[in-house]
Specification:
The complex is a heterodimer. Chain A contains 19 helices and eight strands. By secondary structure, chain A is mainly α. In chain A, the strands form three sheets. A three-stranded antiparallel β-sheet of chain A has the order 1-2-3. In chain A, helix 5 runs antiparallel to helix 6, helix 5 packs antiparallel against helix 13 and helix 5 packs antiparallel against helix 18. Chain B contains three helices and nine strands. In chain B, the strands form three sheets. Chain B has a five-stranded mixed β-sheet with strand order 1-2-5-4-3. Chain B is globular, with a radius of gyration of 21 Å. The two termini of chain B are about 35 Å apart. The mean pLDDT of chain B is about 85. The chains are: A mainly alpha, B alpha/beta. Chains A and B meet through helix 2, helix 4, helix 15, strand 6 and strand 7 of A and strand 3 and helix 3 of B.
Chain lengths: ~425, ~200
């Protein structure tokens, strides 16, 4: 009798499904092999490298300056801070001083990128788990920051704006303006151009005044939203001990309650002069990490305001005058033989970086982003090792989704703020 | 910052003595070279010793020193960047693989779980084998990839390229058709050339 009964129970096997590499919720080309028991995830095995471009190898065949634009292409949702880590590493090896105004500009741009990154992160996270509207609002604000970057660097995304020794150029005095066309009449154009009538700093200040209102709009949409809370509270929980063990950093670490922020603990540039707070979570779940990101945007807004105030009052050089590292001005270059030689040598042979190894880390919006630069004294890097925050976070996905339902996998991928350009390099 | 790093160096000498190479402070960063035999003991103590307490392995990467100017030593090294949240300091730990032909280094995956992917990556790109790693698969390169692309003797453009073959109606691999070229040659100048001081 017993054997007959056992035979009647169907043989239930674990089921393996393939998530991606082309999936709208995969945030890029991520392939996730999921082993399921019913609808519960037993194991998740991320397969990465579909966007691997070999940046570290490419850097070895280019001069120190030619390598810089590659860094923008790592994390393509918050572009310029990656250049920052590279410049810090090269500056450490060269021993050049960065003018104070350039340091303020860098801090301001980094914080703009933090807002840019968190807006995308929260918007798409909500989109992935069913709140379509959110992404429409966050992309509206991203547009303003892209306008600033375009006025500053000439390009909306991959700015290539930082240089070892400073930044490429000073802040522009005016913003590009809308023109009348058959879709926009004079009245509309006038309204649109109102904030753009002054300098870049005026436009940015106007944005920082508007931004806290937008954040409160997001809070209205999500923070007490029942569906949002059901999808995020208690999902993807990680304890502080495990987060450390897994090498997490940034909001993923702070969401678990560890107050660790390189901007405070190992300040670089002028972060030690800034007044801001580090938000931390309590439970280490998706919801806490969401709250941490929301608060970080407001803190970034505070830092930008302080930078604007300082930058208005203190004009000065924005790049070092060491012409073995940074080019002389066009005007000087046209008038002096020595400057012409400097310019020619710098853009043909490139700068020579003294032999040595330097590891420079910054608090990237996603966590610790670091560049380990090794030089043997040549005009090209011997080796560049790029540490991006996304790698340990994606490696931790297996632990975060285990025992959760299949639908929670998208919530976890959203919360780790995954960008495959950042992970694959 | 410097006083703190001096304290770290003193502590390292006190804790390990002869078991590690001389700690070097350069460019605001402390580096130690650990002999292969002592590696696991040393890193375990680095994590557990309350006076050192490196809770986090932030990064681990391979490096191939074969073309480093003026270098003649072991070819491959695994370089870890450790971070202590308690003491707020960092340390670079370097371990060289004994055999250049078949580089093997002990895995630190049990000590810091984050080493899992870093070691897979270093295996994939440099061919360094991590003894004790439970899942040493390739990480970044294509399924079925041959070779270790970040080694210095691997050409930048690789050996094979991929295209769609309309006759076979599938994607095929074929030997590369592009000529590798170097636009700016690699130059090492005399000492102190790039040190700066070239102000006009």
């Amino acid at each position: 009798m017993v054997t007959e009964k056992a035979a009647a129970v169907p043989d239930v096997k674990n089921y393996t499904i393939n998530f991606g590499p082309q999936h709208p919720a995969a945030h890029g080309v991520l392939r996730l092999v999921l082993e399921l028991d019913g609808e519960v995830i037993v194991r998740a095995d991320p397969h990465i490298g579909l966007l691997h471009r070999g940046t570290e190898k490419l850097a070895e065949s280019r001069t120190w300056l030619q390598t810089l634009p590659f860094l923008d292409r790592l994390d393509y949702t918050s572009m310029i801070p990656s250049e920052h880590a590279y410049c810090l590493a090269v500056e450490r090896l060269l021993g050049v001083e960065v003018p104070i105004r350039a340091q303020y500009i860098r801090v301001m741009i980094d914080e703009m990128a933090r807002i840019l990154n968190h807006l995308l992160s929260i918007g798409t996270h909500a989109l992935d788990i069913g709140a379509m509207t959110m992404v429409l609002y966050t992309f509206r604000e991203r547009e303003d920051i892209f306008d600033v970057l375009e006025a500053l660097t000439g390009i909306r995304m991959h700015g290539a704006y930082y240089r070892p020794g400073g930044v490429y150029r000073d802040l522009p005095d005016q913003m590009p303006k809308y023109k009348e066309n058959k879709f926009k009449n004079a009245q509309t154009v006038k309204e649109l151009n109102e904030a753009r009538s002054g300098s870049l700093l005026d436009f940015l200040e106007d944005f920082t005044n508007r931004f806290p209102v937008y954040v409160s709009e997001y809070h209205t949409l999500l923070t007490d939203n029942r569906i949002w809370k059901q999808r995020t509270v208690g999902i993807g929980v990680i304890s502080p001990e495990r987060a450390l063990q897994k090498g997490f950093s940034g909001p993923m670490l702070r969401g678990s309650g560890i107050e660790w922020d390189l901007r405070k603990k190992q300040p670089y540039e002028v972060y030690d002069r800034m007044d801001f707070d580090i938000p931390v979570g309590v439970n280490g779940d998706c919801y806490d990490r969401y709250l941490v990101r929301m608060e970080e945007m407001l803190q970034a807004n505070r830092i930008i305001k302080q930078c604007i105030e300082w930058l208005r009052k203190n004009p000065g050089p924005v790049i070092t005058d060491d012409h073995k590292v940074a080019p002389p001005s066009r005007e000087k270059m046209k008038g002096s033989m020595e400057e012409l030689i400097h310019h020619f040598k710098l853009f043909s042979e490139g700068m020579h970086v003294p032999a040595g190894e330097a590891y420079a880390a910054i608090e990237h919006p996603k966590g610790e982003m670091a560049v380990w630069a090794v030089s043997d004294g040549a005009n090209k890097p011997y080796r560049i090792r790029l540490h991006t925050a996304g790698i340990p976070h994606l490696a931790g996905v297996d632990e975060l989704v285990r025992g959760h339902m299949l639908a929670d996998a998208t919530a976890v991928i959203g919360t780790i703020d995954l960008v495959l350009g950042d992970v694959d390099r | 910052m410097s006083a703190k790093l001096d304290r770290l160096i003193r502590q390292l000498k006190e804790s390990f003595g002869e078991r590690i190479g001389e700690p070097v402070l350069a460019f605001g960063q402390v580096t130690i070279v650990v002999p292969t035999g002592n590696y696991l003991d040393v890193v375990r103590q680095l994590r557990d010793d309350p006076a050192l307490r490196f809770e986090q392995l932030m990064d681990l990467g391979g490096i191939d020193y074969s073309e480093f100017t003026g270098y003649s030593g072991k070819r491959y090294a695994a370089v870890s960047q450790l971070l202590s949240i308690t003491h707020n300091w960092r340390l670079t730990v370097k371990v060289f693989a004994e055999d250049d032909e078949f580089p093997v280094v002990a895995s630190v995956m049990d000590i810091w779980n984050s080493a899992n992917w870093y070691e897979r990556e270093a295996f994939d790109l440099f061919g360094i084998h991590f003894e004790g790693h439970v899942d040493l698969r390739r990480l970044l390169t294509d399924y079925g990839f041959v070779g270790h692309p970040y080694r210095k003797d691997f050409p930048l453009s690789g050996y094979v390229e991929m295209r769609y073959d309309p006759e076979q109606k599938r994607v095929i691999y074929q030997p590369i058709t592009i000529e590798p070229r170097e636009v700016t040659p690699r130059i090492v100048r005399e000492d102190g050339y790039g040190k700066g001081g070239g102000r006009a």
